[in-house]
Amino acid sequence: MGARLVLKIKTYIEGFDDKMNGGVPKGNVVIIAGEPGTLKSSIAFYLLYNNAKCEGRVGAYITLEQGRESLVQQLDSLGMDPTSVESKVSLVDLALIRKNMDKLGQQTWMQIFKTYTNNLKESLDYELLVIDSLQVLEMLGNLETPRQDLFHFFEWLRDLKVTTFIISETKAGSDVYAEKGEDFLSDGIIHLKMDKVDDVNVQRRIRCVKMRGTGHSTNYYTLLFQNGVFQATRVIGE
Ligand SMILES: Nc1ncnc2c1ncn2[C@@H]1O[C@H](COP(=O)(O)OP(=O)(O)O)[C@@H](O)[C@H]1O
Ligand SMILES: [Mg+2]
Predict the structure, then answer these.
(1) Which superfamily is assigned to 27-193 in CATH?
(2) What letter does residue 173 receive in the DSSP assignment?
């Protein structure tokens, strides 16, 4: 008796998966929202990295926002070496997509992106997908009817039958997780922010705003990075 068994994908952020009863329900399309520098890209890669290392799960990280080199440098500063998981996690950037798709002439950017992502699914059979970021995808897509187009895009993502994390860049201090209703279309939202705790100190925070298919805490936790591990701990003094 009781709840239907839902398979969970761990974020590997210590203390955070517990707050979602074990992790993100498999198959969800989840937005990771936050202002610049809140570690969105780092956390997204971190979860692919640990899912590959600990559970052998195959992942794909599509970075449109930041070049591959620059992302690798950032990951290196956090002690993650993408080459150590390269048989499981593919890290592709816009330059690589363009190089592989330049024969496709007449297709719109959105079609190119979908074709590329589908081809990658066929060749790698990834279970986890990261798209970094939603805003760059929308910008490149030059969408004429953004709300409808995004609705169909989220439906298309669900049809991929993988667990997807889409990064959304927000403005500092904003509680708008995505500007065109994508937050309604997604199955989950994880919010990252910086909190000023006094005149000089700023702390990172993480919170699960929404997560279909599981109970979860909606509180903010302090996000720490120590010895190669992300941790979510209770905010002291609130
Ligand atoms: N070794 C480190 N430990 C903790 N934070 C770091 C480390 N190296 C870089 N950072 C932080 O990572 C931030 C960039 O992370 P990133 O994942 O690119 O953020 P986002 O994608 O949200 O813009 C930098 O602003 C810096 O504060
Ligand atoms: Mg980023």
Answers:
(1) P-loop containing nucleotide triphosphate hydrolases (3.40.50.300)
(2) T
Q: What is the DSSP letter of 14?
A: B
What is d(CA 237, CA 203) in angstroms, rounded to the nearest whole number?
13
Residue with the smallest CA separation from ligand 1 atom 26 is: 37
Which residue bears the tokens 């969800």?
A: 28
Contact (Cβ atoms closer than 8 angstroms) between residue 175 and residue 35: no
Counting ligand 1 atoms within 8 A of each CB, the residue from 13, 38, 39, 130 with the most, and so the one to mutate, is 39
Residue 24 has what pLDDT? 98
Please indicate, yes or no, whether the overall pTM of this predicted structure exceeds 0.90: yes
Confidence at residue 104, expressed as pLDDT on a 0 to 100 scale: 67
Predicted confidence (pLDDT) at residue 199 exceeds the cutoff of 70: yes
CB 44 within 8 Å of CB 167: yes
